[in-house]
Specification:
- By secondary structure, the chain is α+β, with helices and mostly antiparallel strands.
- Helices cover 39% and strands 19% of the residues.
- It has one domain.
- A two-stranded antiparallel sheet has the order 1-2.
- The chain binds protoporphyrin IX containing FE.
């Protein structure tokens, strides 16, 4: 889910809202228990992103350590 934000979710958002200013998430590494993504945005909403990630894990009854 989180690794698909860039190429699936936000791509669809952009189609519906062309004026949306979306961040970029570059997946650097992905294994079964590790995901390294680099967040880039002109708006520096990394705490908002952290909140969305925490809630994504909560929604899927899962847990993770986000560093
Ligand atoms: C179905 C799920 C999602 C939808 C529909 C969605 C949609 C959107 C929309 C509409 C915006 C606002 C763009 C604007 O104001 O111009 C946004 C921004 C953002 N999204 Fe998503 N998003 C989703 C999931 C996520 C998740 C899981 C993350 C986790 C990291 C994320 C990270 C962000 C961040 C950090 C921003 C703030 C803009 C910025 O940092 O430049 N999104 N998203």
């Amino acid at each position: 889910m989180l690794s698909s934000i860039e190429n699936h979710i936000h791509v669809e958002v952009k189609k519906n809202y062309p004026e949306a200013e979306l961040p970029t998430f570059i997946v650097e590494e992905k294994t079964t228990d590790l995901l390294i993504m680099v967040y880039k945005s002109s708006r520096a909403m990394y705490y908002f992103g952290l909140g969305l990630m925490n809630k994504t894990f909560e929604h899927f009854n899962s847990s993770a350590e986000i560093l």
